[in-house]
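User: Hey, my collaborator sent me this sequence without any context and asked if I could get a structure. I don't really work with proteins. Can you help?
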Amino acid sequence: MKVVSACLMGCECRYDKKSNWHQEIEQLVKEGKAIPVCPEQLGGLPTPRNPAEIVGGDGFDVLDGNARVIDNQGNDVTQMFIDGAYQALRIAKIVGATEAILKERSPSCGSRQIYNGTFSKMKKEGVGVTAALLIRNGIRVQSEESLE
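Assistant: No problem. I've predicted the 3D structure and written it out in structure-token form, which is a compact way to encode the shape of the chain:
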């Protein structure tokens, strides 16, 4: 069983109320092989919402209290990202997920790259908050880009 970013199966749950639909992800859900999650919604953030980036590190640093998640209006939304990550982990554990396919570059779900925290569209290596928590709990995380 896998968990997948809900936006990848077509849910309009991204910050801008759009999706990143991938037919392969939708098919996994239809076949009962994957469960969709949106950590940002699970953490209590609305849709649509202000875009957010990790400032001062990556998802591991956020979990360790060494970095913050800040939206483009300067609001600290760190706790909502952490709460959502723990809710996604709970779902993953309940369904016995051993893998996750997550949306690349997201401050929650990025598995190889995230934005650099300056809202300049510049990217850096690193993982999002949910990806980091899943990895720490033995769940293999990959990007939807690995399907292409």
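In plain terms: The chain has one domain: 2-147. You can pass these tokens on to your collaborator as they are.
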